[in-house]
Design brief:
single chain, 347 residues, mainly alpha, 15 helices, globular
């Protein structure tokens, strides 16, 4: 696609995000007309229940708006992280969930919440994001090391390494679930395992928003070296890029973004697989255009997925990670079938 058309794509995605946001605020266990939602929004945050704004204001500003914003931030961040991971390993099947990063972040957070009472007392609110980052980073390093064993990395080896690490981390999370002493801890473990946005609060939006903005900004600034990686390790090195150091630094940055996001949303899979692939089909592989398009696309996708999770079985709520998996699973199988036409899964 011509670079001149990229702004058009961004405008269309922004309009889609606004439309999906209005739908997300209007629909749910209690349905409101779009006009009523717009009136509440125009009235400002003072329309919330705390300011006597009535039931509609309470639903929009106190319940649905924080959830909507968290979903947009998490969706955008996972899509950006997936785009970067695919460039780092030069494989379009890479994804924060499939490579174990989301599962690792979830496992780290669960360990601290259930078993680390002393850590929580010492570190306070920073303990869970730090543990999630450590788990995400550890999982990515383990998968990458196993997939690169022997000097080459194939699709099959990458997938098998990711599956192996996920099995280990899932077993660890299950063990923590067995050891959990209180029902609240069991619910917390299930939340991290399935992913969800139902616990979103206004005072918890700052850190994931900062992680998204800073991470995406830094990665867009690194668009050129990310593009060089697409030419292959030898080609990038010939063009002056220290691939080992650059890859390690970007792995850390991606893990930090994933860890912070998963600390507030749990493990939500396949966003970082599907959205970058769709964005690449629209604007090409150049990361200066691809990253912002993927970010907006991820925000739209997870906003709509959460809307389905809240309304499909209302008044019961489906974990949003289940919705993304139902869509992403068949998509992954389709991509895997395409990739194995030219490469054996055994690698």
């Amino acid at each position: 696609m011509s670079p001149r058309r990229t702004p058009v794509v961004l405008v269309l995605l922004a309009a889609s995000l606004v439309a999906s946001a209005v739908a997300g605020l209007a629909l749910g266990a209690v349905r409101m007309a779009p006009g009523q939602v717009i009136d509440v929004l125009l009235a400002g945050p003072g329309a919330g229940a705390g300011a006597g704004g009535g039931a509609a204001g309470a639903i929009v500003w106190d319940v649905r708006m924080p959830r909507l914003l968290l979903g947009a931030v998490v969706g955008a961040g996972l899509a950006v992280a997936g785009t970067v991971l695919q460039a780092l390993v030069r494989n379009q099947l890479a994804d924060p969930f499939l490579l174990g990063a989301s599962t690792g972040a979830s496992a780290g957070a669960v360990l601290v919440i259930v078993l680390g009472a002393g850590v929580l007392d010492f570190a306070g609110g920073a303990a869970v994001p730090v543990a999630a980052f450590a788990g995400s980073m550890g999982a990515l390093v383990a998968v990458y090391a196993m997939a690169r064993r022997g000097g080459t990395m194939t699709t099959g080896r990458l997938i098998l390494a990711g599956v192996a690490v996920q099995y280990v981390l899932s077993a660890l999370t299950s063990l923590v679930l067995v050891l959990a002493a209180h029902p609240d801890q069991i619910r917390t473990v299930l939340f991290w395992t399935l992913g969800g946005l139902g616990g979103a609060r206004w005072d918890e939006l700052a850190l994931p928003s900062v992680a998204l903005l800073l991470g995406t900004g830094l990665l867009i600034a690194l668009a050129r070296p990310l593009d060089l990686l697409l030419a292959g390790e030898e080609g990038a090195h010939t063009l002056g890029l220290d691939t080992a150091r650059f890859r390690a630094a970007v792995f850390v940055l991606a893990s930090l973004v994933i860890g912070v996001l998963v600390a507030y949303s749990g493990a939500i899979g396949f966003v970082g697989l599907m959205v970058p692939h769709a964005a690449r089909m629209v604007v090409g592989a150049g990361h200066r255009a691809l990253l912002p398009v993927a970010a907006l696309g991820g925000a739209v996708f997870l906003t709509l997925a959460d809307l389905v999770a809240r309304t499909a079985a209302a008044p019961e709520e489906i974990p949003v990670g289940v919705v993304t998996a139902l869509v992403g699973g068949p998509f992954f199988l389709w991509m895997l079938r395409r990739s194995t036409r030219t490469e054996g899964v055994a690698g």
